[in-house]
Amino acid sequence: MSKVTTRREGDVLVVSLDNPPVNAFSAEVRQQMAAAIEEAGESDEIRAVVIRAEGRMFSGGADITEFNSAPVDPSLPDLIDSIETLAKPVVIALNGTALGGGCEIALGCHYRIAVPSAKIGLPEVKIGILPGAGGTQRLPRVVGVEQALPIIVTGNPISAKKAESIGLVDRVVEPEKLREEAIAFAREVAERDEHPVSSRRTDKISDTDPDVFDDFREKHARRLRGQEAPEKCIQAVKLATELPYEEGIAKEREFFIELVSGTQSKALRHVFFAERQAGKIDGLAKDVRPLPVRKVGIIGAGTMGGGIAMNFLSAGYDVTIVERKQDALDRGVGIIRKNYDATARKGRMTTEQVDAAMGHLTTSLDYRDFADCDLVIEAVFELMEIKKEVFGRLDEICKPDAIMASNTSYLDVNEIAACTSRPENVLGLHFFSPANIMRLLEVVRGDKTSPQVLVTAMDLAKKIGKVAVVSGVCHGFIGNRMLAVRQEQANAMLMEGALPDQIDRVLLEFGFPMGPFQMADLAGLDLGWKEDESDSSTIRDVLCERGRRGQKTGKGFYDYDENRRRAPSEEVNEVIRDFASRSGKEQRDISEEEIRERLLYPMVNEGALILEEGIAQRAGDIDTVWVNGYGWPPYTGGPMFWADTIGLDRILAGLERYEGTMEDREISTLLREKAAKGEGFND
Ligand code: 3HC
Ligand code: NAI
Q1: Rounded to two decimals, what is the model's pTM?
Q2: Using one digit for the tens of pLDDT, what is the confidence trace for 496-531?
Q3: What CATH fold (topology level) applies to the domain 4-264?
Q4: Where in the chain is the domain with CATH 3.90.226.10?
Q5: 592-677: CATH number
Q6: Which ligand is nearest to the CA of 332?
Q7: What is the ipTM of this complex?
Q8: What is the DSSP code string of 238-258?
Q9: Cα distance between residue 343 and residue 359, in whole Å
Q10: What pLDDT digit, counting tens, does each position of 565-612 carry?
Q11: Distance 394 CA to ligand 2 centre (A)
């Protein structure tokens, strides 16, 4: 079936794109659209062209799956050139989102109209490349450098209204009138002698303040750290102020080819597809449909319960929170309200939206109010006895097909399920803190969890904007289990002579937002620590006893000033040295390379064990967990992809070198086998 069709409406040729799900500009689409443009050029009756699309969006851009194979003609830049140089005006009608190549096609057209809900953007940077079909040269010529820079360098799209205000679209029209208005617009402009051509608006852009590029680099330094593509984006836009279009476009091509074949872009493309793949569950019958969920119950209004509730409230679900005591309930609801108000102050929600979300919330001290809930999520203290008691109560109260979920971080979901009469309805829904913000959700599949319950959880995750990954039952599931081995090594290296700052710095330089000791200070060293049971047996015990409980007390592993700037602490170093000498450990200088390898290689090994035990379905799922839940730098692809790029033989050799430090962990057989065969986890 044709993906691009043409239809003559009198003297206007209407070219329609139809390539579900996202109308990507695949080779086939490009060929067919080029033929349509040729048809318009050759026909004497046709005076103008409308390009439009079927479906819920205009286009998600170039077909990313084609980036790994040899290019097929016509290239997207050639197709766009043929549109731009057509002697007849071309109007593009954006029925929804137009991203990447979809936006670049629009830039090649002479006139652009869009529906109010359309989002227009160049997200290429997010997959480690730059707009490679003229976007870096045409967009600044159309909207100016200052508007173009953030669109290209952050990759975040803009609304149709904003696009209209900066001259990127000519008109905004309601969806039901789009086709008809586009044709009328095309007829109207066909009368004109000349049409705006993006690449010809100016030879080179001459009125730009030269500081704008460095200012932008400085302002976004933190976000751009370690990445190749944003810098190339900035350089490419700058070229539009220095070179004529043809020369600028040649440079853009050069940058594109360099980036697209580089490791960072491959890693980011892996992350893009892995996130989408993670939502799919292997081995389930195709006809398993999600159960309807309208009302959600939450037990516990603490740190997690409140955040979890916000996800559902924002998405329009009715939510009932049940607590033990009124004051805990009031505190929890107060925090939800405060968070929403803060979001509204930042302009990310209207007050009506806040009121609507809060309007879906009811609170109670009585479990019986869960009776009509379709899903109940437990977020009480992390103690098996309490969880069992809670699930026992739920089993008595919840309706027969209600799903009962635990937000436990570590506990055995099978054991929790076993204290109900319907373990098939039980699973883990492990949210990450802050639960209203973090995108990751580990969906923990118990031995008896039914396919339908699992599918419902995955479907719900999507509806509340989460990236869901299925994990089997084990201590800490995918994410925390791997975190534990990293922490083990970090602690061991302190005893061997590395300092907290040295260890944190290695991870920071690798691209993590923070290291383990910064993270501990942020979370509070006394999380889970009990003063009356403390016996000074760990470094953490001693720091807590000395009042060094993290950022909130002004000191923890680091000292903090009034601006929360951290500095290494001599007191802490003293405590560490003291522990080391008592344990008979010799302190030595540890190289950054050893720190990096000992922090990261055991994580890869744990990931391999998780794979071979069938806890994770695929390597990409593990990468998705670490990129979305723990700040693993996406441009390295996640731990398993990164390991592939390093070479599993190298990882194995490193693990063998450090095996003595790995407590009771074994080296994964899967890792050994793959290393021996020269394969990667993602092959
Ligand atoms: N190429 C190939 N496949 C794509 C794709 C693309 N550009 N965009 C999405 N897909 C696929 C997804 O992998 C998914 O496949 P699956 O069903 O097999 O898992 C399917 O389309 C649906 O995608 P989503 O689940 O993401 O659908 P949403 O409706 O949630 O989101 C979207 C739609 C906003 C378009 C989102 O898919 C997206 O952000 N896509 C990528 C956009 C992008 O990066 N474009 C730039 C491409 S590079 C380019 O244009 C180069 C040029 O400058 C030369
Ligand atoms: P919290 O201590 O902030 O909140 C727990 C709340 O549960 C308290 O408000 C308490 O009054 C209430 N509660 C206790 N027993 C109850 C009962 N029987 N009935 C009703 N309410 C009861 O704890 P937090 O941090 O929210 O953790 C909750 C769960 O989420 C734990 O299982 C934890 O492991 C898990 N988790 C925590 C994360 C975190 O970063 N804090 C991250 C992911 C999961």
Answers
A1: 0.96
A2: 999 999 999 999 999 999 999 999 999 999 988 888
A3: 2-enoyl-CoA Hydratase; Chain A, domain 1 (3.90.226)
A4: 4-264
A5: 1.10.1040.10
A6: 2
A7: 0.97
A8: HHTTTS-HHHHHHHHHHHHHH
A9: 17
A10: 999 999 999 999 999 999 888 899 999 999 999 999 999 999 999 999
A11: 17
